[in-house]
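All the exercises in this workshop are built on plain-text protein records. Instead of coordinates, the fold is spelled out as a row of discrete tokens. Once this layout is familiar, the rest of the handout is easier to follow. The record below serves as our worked example for the rest of this section.
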Amino acid sequence: MLTVKGVVLSQRTIGEQDRFIDILTAEYGVIEVLVKGAGKISSKTGSGSQLFAYSEFCLNDKKKGARILSSISPIQIFYGLRSSVSAVALASYFSQVIEFAVLPRAGTPEILRLMLNCLHFLAEGKIEEARLKAIFELRIAALLGFMPDVVMCRACGEYLPERLDFSVEDGYFVCHGCQSTEESLSHFVQMPAASLQAIRHIVLSDFEKIFAFRIGEHSCGPLYQFAEEFLGYHVDRKFPTLEFYRAVSGNQTQEANGQGS
């Protein structure tokens, strides 16, 4: 018997009444759970095992590779998500990234914490979705080991140049005037100093502070573009849920901001 707390990332119906769910836990990464009778009207597992629910799961021993749900206690359902199609689409994108990138049996307390906070802010609508998306993308990239080099210009050592070019592939930046001919062959995102400061804040700040920062409207586009492209490049995967989010939200990040320098 195993008792864990986790967020439901995805669900798959098996037959007429059973369902497999994948849950993100702090101790064991993403684990697969079989929910018997989930499709029954009388099922007591419905709310706690629905998509994006955060619950306490009591699990029996594995059967055919998956543990079987014995009992469940909902902790947070995030009802506010259901009022927005784009919020559900963005939460689905977060889930798909985690399912692809997090290894089974890997301890992931910070990733679970990040997901829970993102779901909270999505449900409450207190942070605009595009900003929340960039925070998730950059922070999870750092947690997965893809930390960008945000210290100084690689060429001249300038800490905060007025304008700069950030490499999506190699994760470093150079002053706009320092970029060499060889570097121009790589994919860089041009941005002002304020965008760099936001990236630094997201990847380096204590967890309690990463959602609280100010940035001017003209600096948001480069930040959002870099975050999406940086994560996508380093996990080397295209996510259908991201395309769906773009379609329902009108947030065409790459198309709206160009493809960098």
About this structure: The beta strands are 2-14, 18-25, 29-35, 54-63, 66-76, 163-167, 173-175, 188-192.
